[in-house]
Design goal:
Length: 180
């Protein structure tokens, strides 16, 4: 997914990153998260740039689109990719650096995002391959290893800290292609 998308912020470019081509799944290529895409020239770009799938073409990571993310958040350096939209807040972590998201300043920022996600009636998520966590302002909930057949549901829940949105994984069955 390197060199992805159009109209990034001025002065923000993928450069030699390409981490999204490893950590994220690409349905059109049957590419699982956490494995390098066969078309990736690692550290350089996409070898099929002109004909890459629409999912790659349209993708822009948070480093390219969120002014609040400085150079410390360049994916090739921080070892995770931010995938943020109005209804989605996901961190996709390099499996070779599975604790990268727990380091500072990243963890504090992810907690800030968990509050922002709540305001948008959703939940911040961290993925390390198929392992996933729901991130709340006061705790991280390990949801285990997800199969592509699983579904996710966000529900409004009463907790000791008040009402909030929580994420639930609904198992859809075993997946023999899971990488973790
Ligand atoms: S097709 Fe190209 S842009 Fe898409 S994941 Fe593979 S290398 Fe990256
Ligand atoms: S993770 Fe972001 S900066 Fe890195 S190649 Fe992908 S879109 Fe570009």
């Amino acid at each position: 997914m390197g060199d992805a998308g159009s109209a990034p912020m001025p002065q923000r470019e993928c450069g030699g990153c390409t981490l999204c081509c490893k950590v994220m799944g690409v349905n059109a290529l049957n590419k699982a998260p956490g494995t390098w895409c066969a078309h990736c020239d690692i550290g350089a770009g996409c070898k099929i740039y002109e004909t890459r799938p629409d999912g790659c073409r349209n993708f822009q990571c948070g480093f390219l689109t969120m002014p609040e993310l400085d150079e410390r958040f360049r994916p090739s350096g921080c070892h995770f990719v931010v995938n943020a939209t109005a209804q989605r807040f996901e961190i996709h972590v390099d499996q070779q650096r599975p604790d990268a998201w727990r380091k500072q300043p990243y963890y504090s920022w992810i907690k800030q995002m968990s509050r922002r996600a709540q305001a948008r009636k959703t939940v911040a998520m961290v993925f390390v391959g198929r392992r996933c966590w729901a991130i709340y302002p006061d705790r991280d909930d390990d949801l285990g290893i997800a199969s592509p057949r699983d579904q996710a549901a966000v529900k409004l829940v009463d907790t000791v800290g008040g009402r909030r949105f929580e994420m639930f994984r609904i198992p859809g069955g075993a997946d023999t292609s899971a990488t973790e």
